[in-house]
Amino acid sequence: MKKIPSLVSILFEEEEKSTGKIGDAPRGDAVDKSTNVKDVDPIEIVNQLLSGDDNAPIVKSTQGQWFATNGAQAKEWVEKIGPEEVASRIKTLASKIPTSGLPKSVMPFLPGPEDAKGSVDQVVDALSPGGKFNIDTHNEAVQKNDVSNIRALKERKVNLKRGKFNVPPAPNTFVGMDDAESKEFMTSGHEENDGNKDDDDIKVVKGGSVPASDAIPTQSNILIYKALGMAMNPKNQIAGGDLDAWAGTNGEILDGHHRWAATMLNDPSASLGTAGQVDLQSLGDEKRTLKFLTALGNALGNATKTESRKTRDDLLIEKWQRLAGILK
Asked: Among 19, 38, 122, 240, which is least packed, fewest CB within 10 Å?
């Protein structure tokens, strides 16, 4: 009787067939500027790079405004690191990317980068008791069900507009400290407004760094062309340095995912500097904490980037290109 292969064995054989070996002629798998790292075959990508062919899909996809690597340069980059090692790093990078990530609309735009308004000190002040600022994250009146205080707090414009206590507004409800509502939000945790001067405290530290291999991506869409473009670019091969953004105290990446990805490809042992780090679990809910951070960035004058436009990665690369004399 003829043995019928199991579904598992068929899938396994198909996977083996599709993967191939380092050094094989590339199949020419399609890659473009929308291809996620999670959706590529690492060995096929390496074989396309090793071909030295300017028209290999992965090489063609890295042609862009800020970086361009030709076939010969791509081949040189792979051989310098080692083809097997590059394939392994792509596989590791893909395994770290979450299946579903946080939407851009809840990602804060905080001071630190050159294009951001406000200062890191203002962020620390707003998240900590005392000082000029302190946002209300733990409303004592509501927690204690103090009806008289609740009635008084309802008179505050900021809470009337939100319709509930202790909940940050939608992104870009207010932008900049010239807005009276921004000022009210930034001082909502002060004792005269909240009733408790010490309860509104989110752990935050200035500066810091995180090893690339320990960083935790929060974005699910990381593009292979951009990660490799930043990693292979003969002018600026990113491997560590300043992430030019904030992170979580556990290594969660809030911005700069492609700079992290390029570092994972060039040197996973390198560290990435951060503008500051926030304990995203301070309020028991990561998304809730992020909403407060988004409103904080808005209050300081940084509109949330909820629509497609030039990204901070683009701005950073443009700055490097200017420093290198490539742009005028």
From this structure: 19
